[in-house]
Amino acid sequence: MTIIDVTELCRSAIMTALIIAAPVLSVAVIIGLAISIAQAVTQIQDQTVSIIPKIVVMLLTMLYVMPWSLGQLVEFSTRLFAGIPGHFH
Questions:
Q1: For residues 4 and 38, is the Cβ–Cβ distance under 8 A?
Q2: What does the pLDDT read at residue 48?
Q3: Please, which residues have CB within 8 angstroms of residue 51's CB and are 6 or more apart in sequence?
Q4: Binning pLDDT at 50, 70 and 90, where does residue 39 land?
Q5: For the residues 2-7, what does the mean pLDDT come to?
Q6: Long-range contacts of 59-67 (CB under 8 A, 24+ apart)
Q7: What's the rounded Cα separation, in Å, for the pair 44 and 50?
Q8: Are 66 and 60 in contact (CB under 8 A)?
C-alpha cells in the first residue's frame, strides 16, 4: 500500500463523512438562522428556545435520511473491503 493509496483512502473517508453529515448540518444551520431571526424580532433571548427546536429537527432529519446515509456507508465499506486484496501483496 503506497502513500497515494492511503491518501486516497483518507480522502474518500472524509468525503463520505462530509456527504453523510451535510443534510443534518444544513438543516441545523437553516433552523438556527430562522430561530435567531425570530429571537431578534421578538427579543426573546432564552437559550432553550434555540436549542430544543434544533435538536428536534436534527433528530427528525437524521431519521429521514438514515436509509440513504446507511446506503452510503455500506457502499463505502464495500469499496473498502473489495480493495483490500489488491493493496496487500
A1: no
A2: 77
A3: none
A4: confident
A5: 84
A6: 61/23, 61/24, 61/27, 62/24, 65/23, 65/24
A7: 10
A8: no
Instruction: For residue 38, give every residue at least 6 positions away whose Cβ sits within 8 Å of its Cβ, in sequence order, or none.
Output: 44
Q: Look at the chain and count its residues.
A: 89
Give residue 51's pLDDT band: very low, low, confident or very high (50, 70, 90): confident
The one-letter code for the residue type at 6 is V
- List all residues 6 or more positions away from 27 whose beta carbon is below 8 Å from its beta carbon: 57, 58, 61
- Please give the pLDDT value at position 42: 86
